[in-house]
């Protein structure tokens, strides 16, 4: 009896723990660890486990547990702010992996065939991409931790982002993970899988090489980033930024960028501050892009507003942050979930979102599209700015709440992805680091400012024009994944109906 117990299937508790652990294995691919090389392998243990699930119900349970592990591992830095609510959110979002796990079991279980070499990687990757799409909705936390974003510093990734965005890179990474499982478990499908993988790699390489590239401007623009560092108090922060900006005088800057919430007062109600900013513009010879986080006269509530300030004061259109951080800047269904403010640092008052994007133009003709913090996680926003004629994307951010976590480095890495997708340089300016600047191909355009710095840094960038394939065609990789799942589901349904008829 002891021998039978030892040779039988693993107990349920063991599989549950294995699923929870396997779901968290992709987390190190993101900064701060930044193990980008782990991304093509990180899902293999989870896929192997789901493949051997004894029933579809068991696969769904292990998919949910793995999804819970993934969300906790990737968002662990939220714990100091949301406390137990982080676990609640992870458990709810983890449910998205339950149907995916059942799909994995169907496609990977049993003896392999040459047909599986094509259908399994495509099906598993398409299902994963749909999960990324669903959880990318702003109300569910936004597109943080998309697998494709892990390749922000890798040449092949930077060449594929302009073709199909972060979605295409996610799709290919999951397909590679799945193909490795097929090769390891299905000898009859091994060579077909390798052949299919080689064909896809050759096609992707050819398309990336032939894809249109952004056209850089003839003359570089000199952009300055001001990072004041950790300072308590809006007045003290303003003073520090003013001193750092004054040090840029005579250095030829055309635009000086301050971070999110860099001005904690309404400039209309504080003409003295507006005057100091205008004086800074005259002294440095550059316009200042600041971000006002305050109540504005004549408007209810608080907005986070990007304001361009010139030698005579604020000029041009303003931009109000459109996509707010759930719980950080507003509480979804506050009447139902307002209790989150009592167990963590959730927003005590909802910020007011803006309604439209804008492109700001400096006196020197530089056209910049502003984004604010969380918005750099959304591929569609930078794509729209590129289509609207922005030659440069400016992201104003603050991750000071998560200063000693993975969040600052991971947030800065998203700027590289957005730059490569849109074919536009991206300036990521923060209050407390990490600030970073990337050229139109997504490569660093100068040293970054870490979380230990209080400094002003000057960068040379070439604004760009033209449209990448992603700017032209958008989220086509997502549409292809959904279409594959619909067609495959239709084929299975037809076969089942015919089988019943024959029976």
TrEMBL record:
The keyword Transport does not apply. Keywords: Acyltransferase, Cell membrane, Lipoprotein, Membrane, Transferase, Transmembrane, Transmembrane helix. GO terms for cellular component: plasma membrane. Gene3D superfamilies: Carbon-nitrogen hydrolase (3.60.110.10). One of its GO terms (molecular function) is N-acyltransferase activity. Coiled coil: none annotated. Its main location: membrane. Pathway: Protein modification; lipoprotein biosynthesis (N-acyl transfer). Pfam families: CN_hydrolase, LNT_N. It is a multi-pass membrane protein. The keyword Cell inner membrane does not apply. It is found in: Cell membrane. The chain crosses the membrane at residues 12-29, 35-52, 59-78, 84-108, 120-140, 160-184, 191-211, 476-494. Residues 221-463 form the CN hydrolase domain. GO terms for biological process: lipoprotein biosynthetic process. Its EC number is 2.3.1.269. Belongs to the CN hydrolase family. Apolipoprotein N-acyltransferase subfamily. Catalyzes the phospholipid dependent N-acylation of the N-terminal cysteine of apolipoprotein, the last step in lipoprotein maturation. This is Apolipoprotein N-acyltransferase. It comes from Streptomyces odorifer.
């Amino acid at each position: 009896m002891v021998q039978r117990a030892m040779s039988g299937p693993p107990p349920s508790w063991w599989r549950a723990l294995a699923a929870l652990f396997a779901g968290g294995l992709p987390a190190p691919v993101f900064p701060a660890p930044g193990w980008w090389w782990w991304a093509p392998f990180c899902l293999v243990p989870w896929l192997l486990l789901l493949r051997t699930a004894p029933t579809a119900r068991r696969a769904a349970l292990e998919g949910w547990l793995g999804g819970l592990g993934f969300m906790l591992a990737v968002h662990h830095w939220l714990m100091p702010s949301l406390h137990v609510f982080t676990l609640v959110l992870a458990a709810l979002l983890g449910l998205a992996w339950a149907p995916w796990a059942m799909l994995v079991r169907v496609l990977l279980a049993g003896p392999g065939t040459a047909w599986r070499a094509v259908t399994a990687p495509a099906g598993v990757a398409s299902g994963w991409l749909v999960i990324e799409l669903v959880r990318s909705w702003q109300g569910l936390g936004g597109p943080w931790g998309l697998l494709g974003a892990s390749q922000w510093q890798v040449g092949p990734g930077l060449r594929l982002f302009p073709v199909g965005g972060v979605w295409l890179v996610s799709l290919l990474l999951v397909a590679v993970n799945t193909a490795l499982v097929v090769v390891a478990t299905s000898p009859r499908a091994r060579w077909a899988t390798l052949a299919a993988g080689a064909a896809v790699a050759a096609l992707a390489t050819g398309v990336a090489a032939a894809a249109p590239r952004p056209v850089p401007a003839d003359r570089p623009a000199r952009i300055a980033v001001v990072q004041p560092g950790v300072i308590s108090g809006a007045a003290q922060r303003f003073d520090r930024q003013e001193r750092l900006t004054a040090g840029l005088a005579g250095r030829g800057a055309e635009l000086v960028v301050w971070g999110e919430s860099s001005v904690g007062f309404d400039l209309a109600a504080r003409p003295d501050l507006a005057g100091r900013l205008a004086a800074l513009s005259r002294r440095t010879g550059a316009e200042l892009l600041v971000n006002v986080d305050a109540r504005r006269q004549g408007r209810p509530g608080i907005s986070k507003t990007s304001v361009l300030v010139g030698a005579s004061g604020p000029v041009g259109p303003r931009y109000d942050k459109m996509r707010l951080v759930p719980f950080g800047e507003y509480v979804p269904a506050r009447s139902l979930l307002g209790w989150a403010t009592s167990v963590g640092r959730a927003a005590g008052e909802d910020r007011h979102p803006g309604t439209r994007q804008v492109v700001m133009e400096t006196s020197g003709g530089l056209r910049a599209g502003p984004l604010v913090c969380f918005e750099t996680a959304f591929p569609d926003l930078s794509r729209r700015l590129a289509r609207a004629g922005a030659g440069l994307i400016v992201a104003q951010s603050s991750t000071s709440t998560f200063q000693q976590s993975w969040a600052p480095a991971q947030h800065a890495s998203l700027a590289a992805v957005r730059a490569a997708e849109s074919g536009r340089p991206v300036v990521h300016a923060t209050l407390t680091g990490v600030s970073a600047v990337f050229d139109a191909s997504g490569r660093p355009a100068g040293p970054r400012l870490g979380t230990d710095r209080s400094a002003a840094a000057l960068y040379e960038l070439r604004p760009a024009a033209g449209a990448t394939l992603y700017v032209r065609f958008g989220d086509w990789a997502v549409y292809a994944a959904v279409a594959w799942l619909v067609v495959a589901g239709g084929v299975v349904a037809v076969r089942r109906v015919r089988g019943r008829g024959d029976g």
